[in-house]
Every structure is written in C-alpha cells, then in structure tokens.
UniProtKB/TrEMBL annotation:
Organism taxonomic ancestry: Bacteria, Bacillati, Actinomycetota, Actinomycetes, Propionibacteriales
Sorted UniProt keywords: Isomerase, Pyridoxal phosphate
Protein name per its UniProtKB record: Glutamate-1-semialdehyde 2,1-aminomutase
Source organism of the structure: Nocardioides soli
InterPro entries: Aminotrans_3 (IPR005814), PyrdxlP-dep_Trfase (IPR015424), PyrdxlP-dep_Trfase_major (IPR015421), PyrdxlP-dep_Trfase_small (IPR015422)
Keyword flag Coiled coil: no
EC numbers for this chain: 5.4.3.8
Domain of life: Bacteria
Cofactor needs: pyridoxal 5'-phosphate
Keyword Disulfide bond: no
GO-annotated molecular function: glutamate-1-semialdehyde 2,1-aminomutase activity; pyridoxal phosphate binding; transaminase activity
SUPFAM superfamilies: PLP-dependent transferases
PANTHER family reported for this sequence: GLUTAMATE-1-SEMIALDEHYDE 2,1-AMINOMUTASE (PTHR43713), GLUTAMATE-1-SEMIALDEHYDE 2,1-AMINOMUTASE 1, CHLOROPLASTIC-RELATED (PTHR43713:SF3)
Pfam families (UniProt xref): Aminotran_3
Family as reported in the entry's similarity comment: Belongs to the class-III pyridoxal-phosphate-dependent aminotransferase family.
Length: 453
C-alpha cells in the first residue's frame, strides 16, 4: 500500500526543523530584525520572505554550486536562483567579463559591437532571425505581447492554466466555471480579463481550437513544457497542433523558454524543432545580470520596426521601454555567456547529473512506496506528490501539498541542501558534482524516513 504522510506528523517535524533553523542561524536572525527597520516586509523583494524558514536565510556569498550563509554554513544550491544562476554562481568567465567591462563603462544608450555579436549568436543558437533585448523575462513577455497585438490588431492573450510568465497582468487569470477571475493572491489591477485574456488547460487540443475559433486571440503565450506548477510535459503531437491551430486562426505563438532552456543548448525549441513567431528567454542569459532576449520572425520584426520608426511617433519609446535595456555591460556579459558558458559540454555535464538525480529520487520513491513521481527536463528535475505525470495544470495543482513541501524544504535546508521555495525543482549547473546530487538524494531519503517513522 502507498505510504501516506500524516499531516500531524508533518507539523511536528516542521516545528522541530524551525527550532533547528533558529539554533543554526543567529546572524540571519539579527539581519532579519535589522531588515525590517528599512525594507517593506524586511526583504528587498517580498518573494525572499516566501522560503519555509521562520525568517529569511541571509546569503553571505556563492560560488559554483554552493551558497554560504552569513553564519558560515555551506549549502548545495539546487535552486540556483530559481534558474537565474543556472550556469553557476560567480562563473569564472562571467566574473572576468564583468570586471573587464567595468573599466569601460556600463551604459550610454549607444549600441556596441558586443550587441551585434549577441544577435548573431542568438540567431545561430535558436534559429530566429532577429532579436531584441529586455531587462527581465517579464518585460520580454510584455513586449512580445505588445508586438503580437500590433501585428494582429487583436487584444486577447491566451495562456494555460497553472502557467507563470512573470508579472504580466493579462496572464494572472483563472477560469472559474467559465468566468475569468484574477488568480488567487494577485489583485485585478484594473484588468478586464474577459476582454484581454483567455485560459485553457495544456495538452487539450479541442479546448484550444474552441478558444481560438472566435478569431480574437492575438497570441498564445506558452512554455513548451509547463514548469511552474511542477513539470507538465507536452504530450506527443501537442506542439504540432498548437502551431497549426494558431496559424489557422491568425494567432501568433510566443514560446517562453525562460525555464525550459534546461532542455539543451538551443532550448526546447531547437531540440523539438518548434517554430514560434516570438521566442523569449530571460533569467540565466546574462549570468545573473538582469536581462532577457526575445527573438522574432522577419514578419514580426517588420511590425516592430515599422511601429518604432522615429518618424512614427512623438515619444521615443513606443511602449517598448527600458533605459538600461541592451546596455554595454549586459551585452558584454551576455556575449560571454553565449560563447563560453552555455556550451554543449556544460549541458552534457548538467544533464548527466540530472539523470543521476532522477534515478536517485525514483529509488527513494520506490523504496518507501511513496506514490510520488519525478520528471526531468534536461538539466532540471521535479518531483510531485502524485503517482503519475500530470497532463495539465489542473492535475498538477491537485498534486501539490504545501505542508509537505514546506517541511521537506526546511528539513533539506537544515542539512545543507537548497531547493527552490515554491515547488520541488532540482536544477544542475556546470559546477554541480555527483556528490552534491547524492547529498540531496540521501537527505530526501532521511526526510521520508523521519516523517514515516
Ligand atoms: N517566464 C517564465 C517561464 C518564468 O518561470 C518566469 C519566472 N519564474 C518568468 C517568465 C519571469 O521572469 P522574471 O521574474 O525574471 O521577469
């Protein structure tokens, strides 16, 4: 019979782990008190308060696959800044690029030769012919949507239930019995969802066809496999259907590769020959410096350049904003990441270790008869508390267990293993070792043994 996790036992273990955390982290406790005096909520971004710790763990430093806290404890970092540090902390090539360029000035609102090199490298790697920069994946998605609206003259953005694409208003939506409502926890922000949003379940071709039939959807914004509610892989044939149906409906397709870049050096798009109108990639692309890129077809680029032509509008931004976008420092570091860091060899290493992690977690699940499953997308693993791989966001959501998640994460953190706070994602970087992976597997095994004892 499948083992069940008793909530009362989980509460007990959580309380013990909170106590243990308090004993281990006195300096973080002091900084947390200090932080509350000047930062709203005590942290620079409220998400930093969302870890399962009684107060935030303060980072002292990080190198490779390791984070050190301000009390001097070392952690195997399998969160890697929720992908932002996917190619390792303080990667030597990135560090050198930052130092080299610091002497040349950061930003002047003028293009650099590095920018041309970045465009060429992105073209070669991902296949889309023309590129633009943004400061974050959120911004890149917002600009991609704006472009699709310009190209189609339509307003609606279709997303998949359970998605996350950043702080993009149109996407913070759920379908409640046919009514579009703000997603729980996100305020409406004056958005008229009925007019500008549509939402369907992933992997459901009929629902997609129906939603596109009205001819009023400007774009579908999709991760090629969902990654923000656990991993929901695309079923065979779904991407073909998605592309055919969007084309037939005159709807543009934006593929957001911000997380699925774990698949391989050319992302899921190259590995599976996808053919989007717009391609978005953020987070890891400049080694931790805030930056994102979006690639586009010639047709979309024509729409953009037509619209943003100097003589076309009185203001200089056209709604595609960001004074620091494409600055010289960022482009220099991004060029280095593309040339020296995101290499096939790095991916071979990361994917090999992710396979080791997948096998280890699978063994723990089987040994304790947990009725969970583990999925892998290249260098990224995810375990979910349900026996089978979900087909859509709704199924993935049903498999979530916030108490189990929090207890597990705090237990692992207290044993020197960091997982991303919002779900059980385990990510490899080029500096991760087999010993790091095995440490996670052993700590997971210890956790399960403790809770089931
Ligand atoms: N797209 C996807 C798929 C993401 O997972 C995220 C963030 N988790 C974003 C976009 C937004 O990235 P950022 O917060 O860096 O803007």
């Amino acid at each position: 019979m499948t083992a069940t996790m008793d909530p009362a036992r989980l509460e007990q273990v959580l309380a013990e782990e909170e106590e243990r955390y308090r004993r281990r982290t006195p300096r973080s406790a002091e900084l947390a008190v200090e932080g509350r005096r000047s930062l709203a909520g005590g942290v620079p971004l409220h998400w930093m308060g969302n870890w399962p710790t009684p107060y935030p763990l303060f980072m002292g430093g990080a190198a490779g696959a390791q984070v050190t806290d301000v009390d001097g404890h070392e952690y195997v970092d399998l969160c890697l800044g929720d992908t932002g540090a996917m190619f390792g902390h303080a990667h030597p090539a990135v560090r050198e690029a930052m130092i080299r360029h610091a002497r040349r000035g950061a930003t002047a609102m003028l293009p650099t030769a590095d920018g041309n090199a970045v465009g060429r490298l992105l073209q070669e790697r991902f296949g889309l012919p023309l590129w633009q920069l943004a400061t974050s994946a959120t911004d890149a998605n917002r600009f991609a949507i704006r472009m699709c609206r310009l190209a189609t003259g339509r307003d609606k953005v279709l997303v998949f239930a359970g998605k996350y694409h950043g702080s993009v208003d149109e996407t913070h939506v759920v379908d409640v019995n046919g009514r579009l409502e703000p997603q729980p926890g996100v305020s409406r922000n004056a958005v008229d969802f009925d007019r500008v949003s549509a939402v369907v379940e992933f992997n459901d071709v009929d629902a997609l066809e129906k939603a596109l039939a009205g001819g009023d959807v400007a774009c579908v914004l999709a991760e090629p496999a969902m990654t923000n509610i656990g991993i929901v892989p695309a079923v065979d044939g779904y991407h073909d259907a998605l592309r055919e149906l969007t084309r037939a409906a005159g709807t543009k397709l934006i593929i957001d590769e911000t997380h699925t870049i774990s698949t391989g050096p050319g992302g899921y798009t190259r590995a599976h020959d996808l053919d989007p109108d717009v391609f978005v990639l953020g987070k890891a692309i400049a080694g931790g410096i805030p930056a994102a890129v979006y690639g586009m077809t010639e047709e979309m680029a024509g729409t953009l350049t037509d619209y943003t032509r100097k003589e076309n509008h009185g203001s200089s931004h056209g709604g595609f904003g960001g004074t620091l976008v494409g600055n010289a420092l960022t482009l220099h570091v991004m060029r280095t990441v593309l040339e020296e860091v995101m290499t096939p060899a790095a991916y071979d290493h990361m994917i090999g270790l992710a396979s080791r992690c997948e096998a280890g977690v699978q063994e723990v699940i089987a040994r304790h008869d947990l009725g969970w499953h583990v999925t892998r997308l290249g260098a990224r693993c995810e375990y979910l508390f349900a026996p089978s791989v979900p087909r859509n966001g709704g199924e993935a959501k049903a498999a979530r267990n916030p108490l189990l998640n929090a207890t597990l994460h705090l237990f692992l953190l207290n044993r020197g293993v960091l997982l991303t706070p919002f779900h059980s994602m385990v990510l490899m970087c080029p500096a991760t070792t087999a010993a790091d992976v095995d440490r996670h597997t052993a700590a997971l095994d210890e956790f399960v043994g403790t809770v089931l004892a």
